[in-house]
Backbone:
């Protein structure tokens, strides 16, 4: 039995020891959590009820081949049936929600290991956030209830069990969550039939077309990188588009790969959202030659395919860039960290060589290694349909949101990677621990500065905070020259990439009380403990 065992059981082995610790932590958690808090409040009758299941399945990722996967499926027992849209390949169905809707989601765990679902980017009550302590056993269920408060945008849902997220996402568990609102409707964006979502992933496969989630020491450090782009759960993605303006939503749902997105014919990208709401008319459409999209970031662009010839083909590509993981050796020679970074960086710089060289010969054939970070890839082809072009007016972007009312709270987090382990202010994940500097007030703005450590094994990290939308108010320093122009720090977002030596200041005003989390969204880093709780509002559990 290959495939599923390859995809899943390696992960089971490696998290066995952590299970013991987890059980202990869960026991401690029960002491301070009122038992009623962990079951969602019965908030009357929802507008939409969704039944979501995670279970093993078989998907057709390559034409004519069957691949064992884990996948989400959903039904709508109550409310708009178009709130759930079937997806292709193994990708979970797209949830299509409207601001203000009251949603109930009954989740059933059909896996043979614990899991829980997290609504990435969504402002939901803590009890509905999918914290690892809420993970349910095989055969178990969890009920989520929330009102959709987010602005229109492109969000995601994915598993969030402690130590198992990377393997489960890799095996197929992830889906898009779209929110629509009035501001969007007023913006005069392309109609639904000219809207396309691309969930961008990379996978390694073996000769039998089974997914390979192999965990070597290097995978834990770099994160799992694949050699095959998979778009919306299928390989060799191809779309036919009319000669008109389209709204394209790009979501990076890869475990660790950073994309430098661009069009093969060199046309720039016109970005209207970084995931959580449209840019304001003050910010305007952001035009970039390429856009850097880190794991679990999303962007939305408007693309006028009328600018291309009928019958023409253009590809969405990821352009080559220098693997930023090898930055450390260059930047800090002389310090102890620099020496270490240099040594490690050397190893990683050799990564490409290892793929294709001595080790690569065997490894490549069995699909054990992926392409190195920064290697060029063709992601999806777009064929321009014949027919006369349809003109369209530029979008009417919304008025700016009222500015955050900033309080006096300041937070600082050093984003580090020492030895084999990612850390946040030197700490690793503990199930229920929240330190004093991880508490934020509710309803007023906190300025939170993240700093990319240059010591140890320095590399970029996609940092994510649950339960809030934030603005990036300053980015200082050291993004590599071949990625800098593609960083979109406009508007509200929930995930940003930080490079070694960089300082990124974000501002946020939490609205939901209780236990949330922040972590590196490189899934192997997250599973390795580069994750911490944060607490919004009064009454946090004892510091740990
Ligand atoms: Cu996308 Cu903690 O999650
Ligand atoms: Cu999240
Ligand atoms: Cu990381």
Residues:
């Amino acid at each position: 039995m290959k495939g599923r065992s390859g995809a899943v059981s390696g992960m089971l082995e490696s998290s066995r020891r952590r299970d013991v610790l987890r059980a202990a932590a869960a026991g401690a958690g029960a002491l301070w959590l009122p038992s009623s808090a962990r079951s969602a409040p019965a908030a009357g009758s929802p507008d939409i009820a969704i039944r979501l299941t995670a279970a093993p399945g078989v998907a057709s990722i390559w034409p004519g081949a069957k691949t064992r996967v884990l996948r989400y499926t959903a039904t709508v027992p109550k409310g708009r049936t178009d709130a759930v849209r079937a997806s292709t390949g193994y990708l979970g169905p797209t949830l299509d929600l409207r601001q203000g809707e009251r949603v109930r989601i009954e989740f059933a765990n059909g896996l043979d290991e614990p899991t829980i679902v997290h609504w990435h980017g969504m402002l939901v009550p803590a009890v509905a956030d999918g914290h690892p302590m809420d993970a349910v056993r095989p055969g178990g269920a969890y009920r989520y209830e929330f009102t959709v408060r987010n602005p229109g945008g492109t969000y995601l849902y994915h598993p969030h069990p402690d130590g198992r997220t990377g393997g489960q996402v890799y095996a197929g568990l992830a889906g898009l969550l779209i929110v629509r609102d009035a501001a969007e409707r007023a913006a005069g964006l392309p109609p639904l039939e000219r809207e396309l979502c691309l969930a961008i992933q990379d996978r390694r496969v073996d000769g039998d077309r089974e997914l390979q989630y192999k965990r070597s020491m290097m995978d834990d450090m770099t994160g799992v990188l694949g050699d095959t782009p998979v778009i919306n759960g299928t390989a060799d993605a191809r779309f036919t588009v009319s000669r008109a303006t389209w709204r394209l939503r790009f979501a990076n749902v890869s475990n660790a790969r950073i994309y430098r997105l661009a069009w093969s014919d060199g046309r720039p990208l016109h970005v209207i959202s970084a995931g959580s709401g449209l840019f304001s008319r003050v910010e305007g459409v952001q035009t970039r030659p390429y856009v850097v999209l880190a794991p679990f970031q999303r962007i939305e662009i408007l693309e006028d395919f009328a600018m291309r010839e009928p019958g023409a083909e253009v590809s969405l590509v990821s352009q080559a860039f220098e693997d930023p993981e090898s930055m450390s050796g260059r930047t800090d020679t002389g310090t102890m960290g620099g020496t270490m970074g240099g040594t490690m960086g050397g190893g990683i710089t050799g990564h490409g060589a290892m793929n294709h060289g001595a080790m690569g010969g065997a490894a490549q054939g069995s699909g054990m290694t992926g392409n190195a970070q920064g290697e060029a890839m063709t992601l999806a082809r777009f064929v321009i349909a014949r027919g006369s072009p349809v003109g369209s007016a530029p979008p009417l972007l919304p008025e700016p949101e009222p500015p955050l009312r900033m309080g006096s709270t300041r937070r600082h987090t050093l984003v580090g990677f020492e030895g084999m382990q990612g850390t946040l202010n030197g700490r690793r994940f503990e199930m229920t621990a929240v330190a004093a500097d991880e508490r934020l007030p509710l309803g007023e703005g906190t300025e939170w500065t993240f700093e990319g450590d240059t010591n140890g094994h320095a590399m970029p990290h996609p940092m994510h905070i649950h339960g809030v939308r934030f603005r990036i108010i300053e980015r200082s320093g050291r993004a590599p020259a071949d990625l800098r122009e593609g960083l979109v720090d406009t508007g509200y977002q929930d995930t940003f990439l930080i490079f070694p030596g960089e300082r990124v200041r974000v501002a946020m005003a939490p609205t939901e009380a209780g236990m949330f989390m922040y972590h590196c969204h490189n899934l192997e880093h997250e599973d390795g403990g580069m994750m911490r709780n944060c607490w919004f509002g009064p009454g946090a559990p004892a510091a740990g």
